[in-house]
Write a structure and sequence with these properties.
199 residues, 2 domains, 7 helices, 43% helix, elongated
Length: 199
């Protein structure tokens, strides 16, 4: 298969992000940029696709809470950083997405890049982080292990030790409720301790 030698049409957006203080992280599927906003990080993933006569730039972005992720790391110690995007289940902001397509005869302008970055930044600034985490904590137990870790971290974040102690008692009796094998009694024990400290 012949290698595509075309250059990216989206140089402008990368330049504006870096000048604007966004920190770049390379990933297996594209380029990831993060910018601090108080105790949170606004995270933007960009992935380019070369088509026959055009190029596409897929973008998705979400808000990441450092404090929530630190709690998640304490509950589930991991050599790699525990990354918990703020996707909640009740009346909460979901991951946002956009797709930009540019023909081979066009360029993606700096003006268009500024508009997209401005839209992303405004979205991040409008998110009520505490309310979002409360929504996560008030939801029912998710079905997926990673989401369950975030759920336990949210319960600990808001200091809901009563719910966590109910789960703790159930686990001690051998009842796993809806939790996957990833979630252990030791993890719930640590979540209870954190919740008691924060209550």
């Amino acid at each position: 298969m012949k290698k595509d030698t075309r250059t990216s049409k989206f140089f402008a957006i990368y330049k504006i992000l870096l000048i604007g203080g966004w920190e770049e992280h390379r990933t297996d599927v594209g380029r990831c940029f993060a910018k601090g906003m108080g105790n949170e990080f606004l995270v933007l993933n960009l992935h380019e696709t070369f088509l026959k006569d055009s190029q596409n730039l897929a973008a998705d972005w979400f808000l990441h809470s450092d404090e929530l992720s630190e709690i998640g790391q304490e509950i589930f110690p991991n050599k790699q950083r525990t990354w918990l995007p703020l996707r909640a289940f009740i009346e909460a902001p979901q991951e946002q997405q956009a797709l930009v397509s540019v023909s081979d005869k066009e360029e993606y302008s700096a003006e268009d890049a500024e508009k997209l970055i401005g839209k992303i930044t405004a979205w991040g600034q409008a998110v009520d982080v505490k309310r979002t985490i409360q929504n996560i904590a008030q939801a029912s137990i998710p079905n997926v292990g990673g989401a369950q870790l975030k759920y336990l971290a949210a319960l600990a974040y808001v200091g809901d030790f009563n719910t966590l102690m109910d789960y703790q008692a159930a686990f001690q009796k051998g009842r796993r409720l809806n939790f996957t094998p990833m979630i252990t009694l030791e993890m719930i024990d640590r979540a209870v301790d954190i919740a008691l400290e924060r209550a």
